C-alpha cells in the first residue's frame, strides 16, 4: 500500500461621466448578485452537524495533500490519502470554525472527492457519487463535463487558488491583490484560441490587437500596456517577445492566471499594469483522451488532440501530449490565411513520494498572411508618425495589408523543475526555462488620415529572442494555532537577448482608400539572416523574501522584499521593491484587504521616427496602493478594488523628441462577480472605472491630460443557461469599451464600442464517446471598431465570426 499516505496524529506547534445602459446593467449584475444569493448564505457554509464541536482552523492554500495533512494534524484525526486520487488537485485552504465533517467538506469542495468515516474512526477518501440519472421518457440524460470540477461550468468557472509569484500557491479570496483565473473550461466553451479571445470576458483587461489582423496579441490592464519583455509568463517564468507579445496557443494551457496591478515584488521586472501567466497542461491521474475539431465560416480548420495519464509502478510516471494543427482562410477576405502547428509535451516522475521531477517542451510554428503591424492616424495619409484625427473604423474582414505581407514565428520553450516536500509544511523547488523565438517580419505599416486615404509600407526584418531563467524557492510554515507564519525565500536569474538581422529592407507599396481592396505589386523584400550582434542584452538577478503572518483566524499580515538588479550595455542598476498588506476576515466568507506594492521596469527605448530614436532610458519604478473586499460563498464570489498607481510618463514632444518626464496616475474601481444562480444558470460580470491622467510634467503643460489608450469605463457580461429537459446550453455575452484619447495633448480620441456574442453547446454520446458540440457567433452585429495598442498603433477589431466544433472525450 505504498501509494497510500496516512496523516499522523500530531499536535500543531505553536468624477466619471453618466453611465450608459450597459454600465447600469453590469453594475447591477456585479453588485446585486449578492441579493440574488443572499438567501443561500447559510447553505453556502459547510453543513455542520447539530451537536458537532466547532474548532478554529488555519490552513493555507496549496496542494490537496498538504491541506488534508494539516487538517488531520489540527483536528487530531486519521485521514487515509490515496495519492492517485489527490495528485494535481489543490485546495483554497481553510480559515474559521468548523466541525470535522464540515472542515473536510470545505477542503474537498470541487475536488470530486468525499471523506467517508471508517469503522476505526478515521476517514477514507472516495470518489463523490455521480448525480446524473437517465430520463424516464427515454431521452438522453444530461451529460455534464467534470460535474464536480472546481473551476468548471457547474461552479461558475471559479477557481479558488492560483500561483502568485513569490507568494506561491495562494487562495484567491485571501490574496490582497486584484486577481483572476480564466479556466480551461471557459476557454474551451468560448472557443478562444488566443489571449485576446480568452480575456475578453474580463473588463479589467483590454485588447490592443488580435489573433488575425495584427501580428500578435497586445493586452492592457488598468489602462497600462503590458511589456513584451517581462509581463507574460509560462508557469510563472519569463516569456520574452519582440515587436509584439510572445505568441502562445491557448489549446495547450490549463488556465490563464492574471494579476491586475503592479507586481514588482511578486514577479520581478515588468510594467505595473499586471502580469499574465499561462499554465501549461500537465499529467493527470485520470486518463485524458480528447479530440477536438473546429471549422469557421471563413474556411479555417483546426484539429487538436490531447492525451495524458500515468503509468508504471504506483503510477510514478505521468505524461501529457497536445498536438494542434490550424490551417485555412482567416476572416480577412481576399488573402488572409493562417498555417499553425503546435506540439506540447509534459512529463513528470515521482522519484519518491515527496520528490517530483517535471519536464516540458512546447514548440509552435505560425504564419499569418495579409497582416500589418500598425495603422498610424496622421493628417496627410503619408509616412508620418505625427498623430492626428483617426479614420472611421473599418470592418475587420476588409483587408488593409497586401496579401503578401506576412508574419512568421517559430518559438520553442523547454522547462524543467524539481520539487521536494522535505517536511510536512516545507517545500523546495528549483525551476529552469529556456525560451527561443525566431520571427520573420514581412508585414506592413499603414498611415491613414481622417478621410481614409492611406499609404502602405512593407518592412522585411528577421529577429530573434533568446532567454533563460532559473529560479529557486523555499516555502514553509511554522507556529501555532493563534500565530502562524507562511514564509517564502527565493532567488532568480535571467539572461535575455534580442537580435535583429543586419539585412533590413523596406518599400512603399502605394496609396489607396481604406475599405477599398487595392492590389500592389510584390516588391519581393524577403531578407536573410545576417548576424548583427545582440540588441540590448540584459541580465536580471533578484532575491526575495516574504512572510504571511496569520493572527488567529481573522487577520493576515503580509510583508515582502525583492532586491533586483539588471545590467545591459547601457546601464547597471539595482533597486528594492517592497510590498506590505493586511487581510481581515470579519466572517469566514468575507475578506477585506489593503496593500501597497512597487514595480520595477526597464527604461523605455525611443521609437523609430523620433529625433532621438533608439535612445535607452533609465529603469522606472512605479508605486501602487489598493484596498478591496472579496467574498466567496457556495454559489457566488465577488470582489471590489479601489486602486491608485503612479507610473513614469513617456511621450514624444512637439519637437519630435521622445522623453521620460512626469507621471501617469491611474486610479479607479474594479468590480467582478461570478454567480451560479441555480444548477442551470451562470452569470459572470465585471466592470472597471478608470481615471488615468498625467501629472508632474515639466512646466505643467500636460498636467491633467488623459493618458492615451486608457478607457474610462469598461464592462463585460457573460451568461449561460442550460435547458431542463435536454443537454443543451445557450450562452450570451456583451463587452463595452468607452472612448480613448489618441495623443498626449488630448486633441483626438477613438470612439467607444460595444460587441455582442452568442453561443450554444450540446452534450451527448456517440456510442460510448462523450461528445460536445459548440457553436459560437462572435460580434453578431458585425461592429467595426479600432483596437489601440499605444498612441500611434491602431488595429481593426475582429468582425462577425462563426465557430463550430465537435469535441470527443474517449
Automatic annotation (TrEMBL):
It comes from Herbaspirillum lusitanum. This is TonB-dependent receptor. Keywords: Cell outer membrane, Ion transport, Iron, Iron transport, Membrane, Receptor, TonB box, Transmembrane, Transmembrane beta strand, Transport. Belongs to the TonB-dependent receptor family. It is found in: Cell outer membrane. Residues 77-128 form the Secretin/TonB short N-terminal domain. Its main location: membrane. Signal peptide: none annotated. It is a multi-pass membrane protein. InterPro entries: Beta-barrel_TonB, Beta-barrel_TonB_sf, Plug_dom, Plug_dom_sf, Secretin/TonB_short_N, TonB-dep_rcpt-like, TonB_sidphr_rcpt. The keyword Flavoprotein does not apply. Pfam families: Plug, STN, TonB_dep_Rec_b-barrel. It comes from the Bacteria.
Amino acid at each position: 500500500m505504498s501509494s497510500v499516505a496516512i496523516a499522523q496524529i500530531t499536535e500543531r506547534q505553536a468624477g466619471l461621466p453618466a453611465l450608459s445602459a450597459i454600465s447600469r446593467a453590469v453594475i447591477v449584475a456585479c453588485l446585486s448578485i449578492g441579493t440574488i444569493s443572499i438567501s443561500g448564505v447559510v447553505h453556502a457554509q459547510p453543513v455542520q452537524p447539530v451537536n458537532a464541536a466547532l474548532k478554529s482552523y488555519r490552513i493555507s492554500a496549496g496542494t490537496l495533500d498538504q491541506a488534508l495533512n494539516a487538517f488531520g494534524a489540527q483536528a487530531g484525526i486519521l485521514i487515509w490519502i490515496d495519492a492517485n486520487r489527490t495528485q494535481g488537485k489543490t485546495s483554497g485552504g481553510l480559515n474559521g470554525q468548523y466541525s470535522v465533517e464540515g472542515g473536510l467538506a470545505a477542503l474537498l469542495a470541487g475536488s470530486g472527492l468525499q471523506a467517508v468515516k471508517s469503522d476505526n474512526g478515521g476517514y477514507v477518501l472516495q470518489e463523490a457519487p455521480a448525480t446524473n440519472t437517465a430520463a424516464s421518457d427515454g431521452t438522453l440524460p444530461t451529460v455534464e463535463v467534470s460535474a464536480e470540477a472546481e473551476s468548471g461550468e457547474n461552479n461558475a468557472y471559479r477557481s479558488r487558488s492560483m500561483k502568485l509569484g513569490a507568494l506561491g500557491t495562494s487562495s484567491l479570496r485571501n490574496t490582497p491583490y486584484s486577481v483572476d483565473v480564466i479556466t480551461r473550461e471557459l476557454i474551451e466553451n468560448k472557443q478562444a484560441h488566443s489571449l485576446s479571445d480568452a480575456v475578453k470576458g474580463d473588463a479589467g483587461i483590454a485588447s490592443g490587437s488580435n489573433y488575425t489582423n495584427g501580428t500578435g496579441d497586445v493586452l492592457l490592464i488598468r489602462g497600462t500596456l503590458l511589456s513584451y519583455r517581462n509581463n507574460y509568463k509560462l508557469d510563472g517564468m519569463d516569456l520574452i517577445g519582440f515587436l509584439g507579445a510572445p505568441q502562445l496557443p491557448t489549446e495547450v494551457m490549463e488556465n490563464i492566471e492574471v494579476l491586475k496591478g503592479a507586481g514588482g515584488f511578486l514577479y520581478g521586472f515588468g510594467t505595473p499594469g499586471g502580469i499574465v501567466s499561462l499554465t501549461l497542461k500537465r499529467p493527470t491521474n485520470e486518463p485524458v483522451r480528447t479530440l477536438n475539431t473546429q471549422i469557421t465560416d471563413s474556411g479555417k480548420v483546426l484539429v487538436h488532440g490531447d492525451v495524458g495519464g500515468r503509468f508504471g509502478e504506483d503510477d510514478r510516471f505521468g505524461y501529457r501530449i497536445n498536438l494542434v494543427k490550424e490551417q485555412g482562410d482567416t476572416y480577412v477576405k481576399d488573402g488572409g490565411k493562417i498555417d499553425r502547428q503546435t506540439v506540447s509535451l509534459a512529463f513528470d516522475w515521482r522519484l519518491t513520494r515527496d520528490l517530483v521531477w517535471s519536464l516540458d517542451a512546447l514548440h509552435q510554428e505560425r504564419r499569418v498572411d495579409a497582416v500589418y503591424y500598425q495603422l498610424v492616424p496622421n493628417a496627410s495619409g503619408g509616412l508620418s508618425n505625427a498623430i492626428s484625427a483617426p479614420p472611421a473604423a473599418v470592418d475587420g474582414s476588409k483587408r488593409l495589408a497586401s496579401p503578401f505581407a506576412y508574419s512568421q514565428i517559430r518559438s520553442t520553450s523547454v522547462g524543467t523543475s524539481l520539487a521536494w516536500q522535505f517536511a510536512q509544511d516545507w517545500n523546495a523547488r528549483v525551476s529552469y526555462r529556456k525560451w527561443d523565438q525566431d520571427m520573420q517580419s514581412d508585414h506592413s505599416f499603414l498611415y491613414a488620415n481622417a478621410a481614409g486615404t492611406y499609404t502602405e509600407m512593407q518592412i522585411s526584418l528577421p529577429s530573434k529572442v533568446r532567454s533563460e531563467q532559473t529560479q529557486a524557492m523555499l516555502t514553509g510554515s511554522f507556529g501555532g494555532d493563534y500565530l502562524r507564519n507562511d514564509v517564502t525565500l527565493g532567488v532568480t536569474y535571467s539572461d535575455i537577448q534580442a537580435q535583429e538581422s543586419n539585412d533590413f529592407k523596406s518599400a512603399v507599396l502605394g496609396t489607396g482608400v481604406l475599405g477599398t481592396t487595392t492590389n500592389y505589386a510584390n516588391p519581393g523584400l524577403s531578407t536573410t539572416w545576417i548576424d548583427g550582434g545582440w540588441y540590448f542584452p540584459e541580465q536580471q538577478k533578484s532575491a526575495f523574501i516574504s512572510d504571511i503572518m496569520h493572527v488567529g483566524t481573522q487577520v493576515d499580515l503580509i510583508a515582502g522584499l525583492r532586491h533586483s538588479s539588471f545590467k545591459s550595455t547601457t546601464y547597471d542598476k539595482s533597486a528594492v521593491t517592497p510590498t506590505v498588506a493586511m487581510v481581515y476576515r470579519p466572517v469566514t466568507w468575507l475578506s477585506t484587504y489593503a496593500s501597497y506594492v512597487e514595480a520595477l521596469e526597464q527604461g523605455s527605448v525611443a521609437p523609430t521616427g523620433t529625433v532621438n530614436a533608439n535612445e535607452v532610458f533609465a529603469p522606472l519604478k512605479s508605486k501602487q496602493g489598493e484596498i478591496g473586499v472579496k467574498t466567496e460563498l457556495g454559489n457566488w464570489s465577488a470582489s471590489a478594488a479601489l486602486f491608485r498607481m503612479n507610473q513614469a510618463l513617456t511621450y514624444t514632444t512637439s519637437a519630435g523628441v521622445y522623453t521620460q518626464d512626469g507621471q501617469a496616475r491611474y486610479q479607479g474601481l474594479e468590480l467582478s462577480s461570478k454567480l451560479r444562480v441555480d444548477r442551470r444558470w451562470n452569470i459572470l460580470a465585471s466592470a472597471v472605472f478608470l481615471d488615468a491622467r498625467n501629472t508632474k510634467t515639466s512646466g505643467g503643460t500636460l498636467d491633467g491630460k488623459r493618458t492615451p489608450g486608457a478607457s474610462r469605463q469598461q464592462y463585460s457580461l457573460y451568461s449561460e443557461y442550460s435547458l431542463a429537459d435536454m443537454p443543451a446550453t445557450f450562452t450570451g455575452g456583451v463587452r463595452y469599451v468607452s472612448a480613448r484619447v489618441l495623443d498626449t495633448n488630448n486633441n483626438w480620441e477613438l470612439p467607444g464600442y460595444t460587441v455582442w456574442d452568442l453561443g450554444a453547446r450540446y452534450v451527448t454520446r456517440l456510442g460510448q464517446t462523450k461528445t460536445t458540440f459548440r457553436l459560437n457567433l462572435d460580434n453578431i452585429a458585425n461592429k467595426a471598431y479600432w483596437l489601440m495598442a499605444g498612441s500611434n498603433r491602431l488595429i481593426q477589431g475582429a468582425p462577425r465570426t462563426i465557430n463550430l466544433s465537435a469535441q470527443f472525450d474517449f
